[in-house]
Amino acid sequence: MSNHGYSRADQLNCKLMTANCQLKKLTIMQKPYSLLISLILLLVSAGTVHAWEGVVTKVIDGDSLQIRQDGNIYEIRLYGIDTPEYKQPYSNKAKQFTKRLAYKQTVTVEKKDIDRYGRIVALVFSQGKLINRDLVRAGLAWFYPKYCLEQPLCGELESLERQARKERRGLWRENLPVSPWDWKRQEKISGSKSRSGKDLHFLNWRRWLNFLDDAVSL
């Protein structure tokens, strides 16, 4: 028995209880940090860029290409830009530009979306260059404000387009270059008018035939 009326066993139990309390306090204090670390890891994993590599087997036009990976062929649409449509000025030059950079090259594809045609919308890196960016810089593509929303990339593309306009590079040498989306809209309208004109011509011809039939029957 000690001077304080406690046996050695009591003192040992007391020390053990104190250690347990301190351990519980430490665990409780660590919980917020554990939760914070878990949250950070979750956010990092959610923002992880999923990129893959493949070989370009075909350049369809300036902003569309086919890439082979593990025996599969994927059609890729370049994110954030729009090159001239077929029959538009500089359409072939944009295609040849992309071809020089990417055809038969191993490229890195950073997926952003899937469009309504089932194509992978992506950033494509070839020979250390981002093709999306270089097309705009060369004045062979428009920054696509309707679909380019990622920052700071899209802000950079917009700035590169302004610079290309200012220096009259590529298609900006034209007096009034028409964006691909406006060109497609105009083509759709003119196509509708053309079809309407054909229908009207066919209707007038039918009326003329009916008139002749009536005249003969008289």
Give a description of the structure:
The chain has 218 residues and is of the alpha+beta class. The chain folds into 2 domains: 42 residues; 123 residues, OB fold (Dihydrolipoamide Acetyltransferase, E2P). Helices cover 50% and strands 21% of the residues. It contains 5 helices and 8 strands. The strands form 2 sheets. The protein has a 5-stranded mixed β-barrel. The protein has a two-stranded antiparallel sheet with strand order 4-8. The longest helix is centred in the N-terminal third of the chain and has 39 residues. The protein is globular and about 105 Å long. The relative contact order is 0.09. The C terminus is likely disordered.
Blueprint (SSEs and pairs):
Elements: H1 8-46, E1 51-61, E2 64-69, E3 72-78, E4 81-82, H2 91-102, E5 106-114, E6 120-126, E7 129-130, H3 131-137, E8 142-143, H4 153-166, H5 180-217
Parallel strand pairs: 3-6
Antiparallel strand pairs: 1-2, 1-5, 2-3, 4-8, 5-6, 6-7
Helix content bin: 40-55%
The total of beta strands comes to: 8
Average pLDDT for all residues:
80
Structural class: alpha+beta
How is the biggest beta sheet arranged? 5 strands, mixed, barrel
Q: Per the principal axes of the C-alpha atoms, what is the gross shape? A: globular
CATH class of the largest domain: Mainly Beta
- Share of residues in strands: 15-25%
